[in-house]
Amino acid sequence: MTSAFLPDYAATMVQPSPNHGERADGRLPDMILLHYTGMGTADGALDWLCRDESQVSSHYFVHEDGRVLQLVPEARRAWHAGKSFWAGEVDINSLSIGIEIANAGHPGGLPDFPEAQIAAVIALCRDIAVRRGIAPERILGHSDVAPVRKVDPGEKFPWDRLAAQGVGHWVEPAALGGGRFFQQGDSGQPVEALQSMLSLYGYGVEISGEYDAKTAGCVEAFQRHFRAARVDGIADVSTIDTLHRLLTALPRFGV
């Protein structure tokens, strides 16, 4: 049964979804996960997230015009991440607050995110991050925690604009250029070093020294978030330099 609840975020209206449960082991959310809906209309996506038979939900839903709805209380475990991994954790739903952003995504030709919508996402993320003490590097996209399987919120999502307002972890991506690169089928110590860097940042890649399909998928997910000028799964100089500077900028690695 769907029950009303008090919102956690002041600038929202409640539209309850029945699809949620207890967070495992009493975990408190320390991550924000951003999605696009990937459906033709916002109303259709919202209806699906609130249907019992869908078995999916998110904590928040952001319309194109900036209206924000809360579907699930933050204290509860919404069902938005699916099979996923980040920094050694596999139950991302128990660790995260999920935000669905109404956008047709790749199936709809990757339309731009409207200004009002991005402003609303920034305000919502800032509020959650302050209240929950969520670190910038723990504000991620669905594709980060589920490479290959998921591609949202997509390479047109303006992560740089969020970072300019204090939301998320970011460095200016290195420019595209020449130089040595690594791709699927390559192997050796340089590939192992790349895998180690991706793993240190949080991606679920095995450190094998073999540039396999999973490694390519993690590189593509990284590019989609942090170096979207070219998303091809090939670790070029621009990709590796951007990843290295992101790692250096993390509090646990920086100086």
Précis, in short:
The protein is α/β, with parallel strands linked by helices and 255 residues long. It has helices spanning 42-49, 92-95, 115-132, 142-145, 159-164, 189-201, 213-226, 237-249, and strands at 13-14, 20-21, 31-36, 60-62, 68-70, 77-78, 96-101, 139-141. The N and C termini lie far apart (51 Å).
What does this structure look like?
The chain has helices spanning 42-49, 92-95, 115-132, 142-145, 159-164, 189-201, 213-226, 237-249; strands at 13-14, 20-21, 31-36, 60-62, 68-70, 77-78, 96-101, 139-141. By secondary structure, the chain is α/β, with parallel strands linked by helices. The strands form two sheets. A six-stranded mixed sheet has the order 1-5-4-7-3-8. A two-stranded antiparallel ribbon has the order 2-6. Helix 6 (189-201) packs across helix 8. The N and C termini lie far apart (51 Å). The mean pLDDT is 96.
